[in-house]
Write a structure and sequence with these properties.
This protein is mainly α. The chain has nine helices and four strands. The chain has three domains: 85 residues, no CATH class; 45 residues, no CATH class; 81 residues, no CATH class. Bound molecules: zinc ion.
Length: 233
């Protein structure tokens, strides 16, 4: 005859939410007489979250220290987490990018000013190695940015390049094309970027620069053609 063994679940009362919960719902704590934490895992997690919101610096410092002192283990932990959460993480970072667009753009401009040649060479190399993907990506970009795509075509066909002074602020100019796209989307009618003084005309030759750009409706642009400019004689 064997002694009867206890097969039921040990229940403990949570010191925070006061609910009776199975022992497995509590983290281990060897110093306590029950061998478990006084609050259940859910309550402990909630308390941690609140404390973290109150003292972000404390937690950041603690995480940095843990990372420094256990680099290999932490990297493995991160790799495992990342493999499971890759898509969610990518969406989170896209969402962050959308919310911080001006900052991201400013950072982009700074990086390009510093390493433009290197970055262009790197992306040209990638395009050569991934021709199909590059083409698909470019088509998708054109679909999403019709105004900017038209701008690029015009730049390529040379007229604007000849009319663009060295000091032109291309970032400010791209902003004009973005504005035209935004207005088109918001109003449902077509907006275009126009050169106030036309680039090609028998009497004048306007510059392709930020001071000569304005965002007007397509129908106004068509009425104007290349025949009029602000202080026309
Ligand atoms: Zn609880």
């Amino acid at each position: 005859m064997t002694a009867p063994t206890f097969t039921g679940e040990v229940m403990l009362r949570c010191g925070a939410c006061r609910l009776l919960k199975a022992e497995t719902e509590f983290a281990r704590h060897s110093d306590r007489i029950t061998g478990s934490q006084h609050a259940c895992k859910a309550c402990a997690e909630q308390a941690r979250r609140q404390d973290r919101a109150r003292n972000p610096g404390k937690y950041r410092e603690r995480e940095r220290r843990r990372w420094r002192e256990n680099k290999v283990r932490e990297q493995a932990r991160f790799a495992k987490w990342y493999a499971k959460n890759r898509e969610a993480d990518a969406e989170k970072s896209r969402e962050w990018g959308r919310r911080n667009k001006p900052m991201v753009q400013a950072r982009h401009v700074r990086r390009y000013a510093k390493n433009g040649a290197l970055l262009r060479a790197r992306s040209a190399a990638w395009r050569t190695a991934n021709r199909g993907r590059a083409r698909a990506k470019s088509r998708e970009w054109q679909r999403l940015n019709p105004e900017r795509a038209r701008f690029n075509v015009r730049v390529r066909n040379g007229v604007q390049r000849r009319a663009q002074p060295a000091w032109a602020d291309t970032f400010a100019m791209r902003e004009a094309y973005d504005l035209a796209a935004l207005r088109t989307q918001a109003t449902g009618i077509q907006w275009q970027v126009d050169h106030a003084v036309p680039l090609i005309n028998k009497k004048v030759c306007g510059l392709h620069c930020e001071f000569n750009l304005r965002v007007i409706t397509a129908s106004e642009n068509q009425r104007k053609q290349n025949l009029r400019w602000p202080d026309m004689p």
